[in-house]
Fold UDP-N-acetylmuramoyl-tripeptide--D-alanyl-D-alanine ligase.
Amino acid sequence: MNLTLAEVARCLGTLADEGFEKTVVTEVKTDSRTVEPGDLFFCIAGENFDGHEFARQAAASGACAVVASRMIGEVDAPIIMVRDTKVALGRLAACWRDTCGARLVAVTGTAGKTSVKEMLHAVASQRFATAKNYRNFNNQIGLPLSMLKASADQELWIMELGISRRGDMEELAPVASPDLAVITNVGPGHLEGLGDEAGVASAKTALLRYLRQNGQAVICRDYPLLWNAALELVDAPVGFSGRDGADTDFSAVFLGSTPDGQGRFRLRTPDGDGEITAPFRGAHYAENLACVAAAAHCLGLSRDDVVKGVQTMATDPQRFCCKIGKGVTVIDDTYNANPLSMAQSVRTAREMAGESPLVLVLGDMRELGKEAMALHEELGRVLREVAPAMVFYKGEHFLDVERGFGGYMREAGKPEEFLEAWRELCLTEGVVLVKGSRSLKMELLANVLCRELNALPQGGGL
């Protein structure tokens, strides 16, 4: 960001003090521990900490000013008072975007939104100076901070928006105000705050109400609730599909893996139809690939641009990242989990295993509210469908999953306990999928197993 304090004050609707015109903001921070000279510090009140209590520390570290919503006492820096600092942060980000004149792509969905954002960034970066948010910095604080980190010479901003309760999108979407809105899919995620799948579809498609004039929407055709909700808000969304034979211009199908661990896909767009290889695997990545192709087309990019872009991708260590050691492929998909992404990953792991043993190391899917028991039991039925050699499970819903599975399962336990149980299997080949909600830290189990197998990345995922 390159604004003076006077410009910041005008963006926030406050008066500029003397000297503000000459003070240039280096960066915007919400964590006083990271403040450096020239930074603008926003006092954000969270569940555990209130930034107002650390305003003096931020000023001592060289903050050029402090944005606050209540009195904070003597601070050795100018104070800009606002009604709500979180709202003000979003307002400043939107103002900075307008100052830059950047086009903005907003990506949301139940599953795959981070992968789509990363893939689209790789594709678009071939033609445009492109910004993106880091990993999943996608909430009411992460989104504006990501936008404020973008520079004026980056003409395209690709921003992920994550929601978990009703009203979240109404807070995020006006900040993003996208030229292109991309919704990857909808499923039973964050039901605790969104109600049911219809509620998820309604909450996600609320983004479309905030499209800029002449803005476009890219929507997955494979989810009727999503597609129909989108049609109520936009006249002609651009559809895509992860299914063969879909009635849409943009589709992709997973065809299998190459010997070196790459994924083989058939990608169909108005520019062409044929097989490509990419550094990720699975039917869920076919959906992501089709989504990126549709979004890229809206940005004026070709099918060739998509192919070249995705082939440059580096794997994310916790998003379907495949490592091989001693004949066993370990899939680290531990970043997070919901019913949609869990079923997708389990079925893809079964496809990858073929006739070899499949071992599932899974954990609870959190934030499902009153549907949690039923959805974990449904997960058990998905496990029964793929016939794993063993299921290790971590979390409160062990019995619910076991009831749906109808077979033998083991508690995953602590990493050392899991490793002892793994050794008892005496497997010399196969596929192991490790996945669960972020709070369970399933990566600890993936890491200890990879060390045991001396497993190294091979091809992989995103």
Remarks:
- The chain has three domains: 5-85, 101-310, 321-457.
- DSSP finds 16 helices and 20 strands in the chain.
- Residues 321-457 form a domain with the Protein-Tyrosine Phosphatase; Chain A fold (CATH 3.90.190.20).
